[in-house]
Amino acid sequence: MSVTQLAVFIQNKPGRLAAVTRILGDAGVNIRGFSIADTEDYGILRLLVDREDAARDALRAGGFTVHESQVILAEVPDQPGGFAGVLDLVAELGVNVEYTYATAGSLIAFGVSDRDSAEATLRERGVRLLSNAELSRL
Fold first, then answer.
1. What's the CA gap between 66 and 53, in Å, rounded?
2. Mean pLDDT in the chain?
3. CA–CA distance, 56 with 38 (Å, rounded to integer)
4. CA–CA distance, 112 with 119 (Å, rounded to integer)
5. Half-sphere exposure for 88 (CA within 13 Å, toward CB)
6. Which residues touch 134 (CB under 8 Å, ≥6 apart)?
7. Of 87, 17, 79, 111, which Cα lies nearest the Cα of 9?
8. Mind listing the domains of the chain with CATH numbers?
9. CB-based contacts of 65: which residues, under 8 Å, 6+ apart?
10. What does pTM read for this prediction?
11. SS3 51
12. Between the CA atoms of 88, 93, 99 and 100, what dihedral angle is there, to the nearest 10 degrees?
């Protein structure tokens, strides 16, 4: 079980992030989680939203390049060491965590090198994973 992440490529200049969020707001899309990685000239905005199809279509219509991928959305125990415990499970598989970012509450999105293996192990070890439908209801 995974969720759809949208990666939006934006120029690193004033107003571009505001334009993305305005387009999503105008389309009635709610942002549930995000991460921004930037360089001097451009940025990559990773988004989890409640309506990925509407978000993708609106952003593309607005002239933005959007890439879809699947990430794991795991409920990490909200206690000291909770995040480390989930990361340890993934590391035991030899799966690389390529990036991660927090979303609502104690939900963490994981981009990993072997999503299927990581999902199976996390589920087996009792880590709650969310679906797109569950994400849209948050």
1. 11
2. 91
3. 21
4. 10
5. 6
6. none
7. 17
8. 3-69 (3.30.2130.10), 71-136 (3.30.70.260)
9. 8, 9
10. 0.80
11. coil
12. -40
d(CA 136, CA 29): 10
Q: What angle do CA 53, 58, 64 make, to 5 degrees?
A: 110
3-state class (DSSP) for residue 120: helix
User: What are the DSSP calls for 17-38, one per residue?
Assistant: HHHHHHHHHHTTPPEEEEEEEE
Q: What is the mean pLDDT of residues 84-103?
A: 92
Tokens (6 digits) for 38: 């930037």
Could you tell me the two tokens for 111?
A: 């981009």
* Rounded mean pLDDT, 48-75: 96
- For 7, 17, 95, 115, 117, the CA distances from 65, given in Å and listed in that order, are 8, 13, 29, 24, 30
Residue type at 17 in one-letter notation: L
